[in-house]
Amino acid sequence: MHAQHSHVSARVRNELRRRIALEAARLITESGIRDFALAKRKAAERLGAYDEGSLPKNSEIEEALREHQRLFQAEEHPQLVRALRAAAREAMQFFAKFEPRLVGPVLEGTADRHSAVCLHLFADAPEELIIVLDEQGIDYNESARRLRMTRDNAVEFPVLQVTRDGTAFDLTIFPRDAIRQAPLDRVDEKPMRRASLAALDELLASEKRPDLR
What CATH topology corresponds to 76-208? Predict the structure, then answer.
């Protein structure tokens, strides 16, 4: 009897985790929340779930986000992602001397209308990038971001935010030798996937082939 009760409880908890993940995905898509932890907390509050054990993993939220986009944005979402990847390509050509790498939702295919094109750029000093923007008369906002390089080590990096033709660009500046070590991804805590311009070109080319999605 006890075993049966435990099985039912586990099933109920798993269903609640899935509902929270789906609600978090909806919030991310509609509200532009990019912080998975915040999205899952808000989703749990809306569903009246206060048990930490019922909260989904970030990977579950990402999968729910992909599912939400397939179901509710089947036509417009792929077009949006292609447009953002094309904008990323143009920016990467512009910043070619900084060995740009595309990261985040635009690369992963989970971007929405709130998403910025996120690039990692590599320079001996952040001022190198700032000089380029100033010379081109490009406005930017400066901030900083802490990224986990290992499970036990977080490092703060300068960030420049730029908007061009209605598209937001988020530029994180790393030392040149950091190109060999990607920070950990917030979803699975593995090294973040990063794409060079050549890799992005391959991705864009694959999207044009009728036999590939």
Answer: Beta Polymerase; domain 2 (3.30.460)
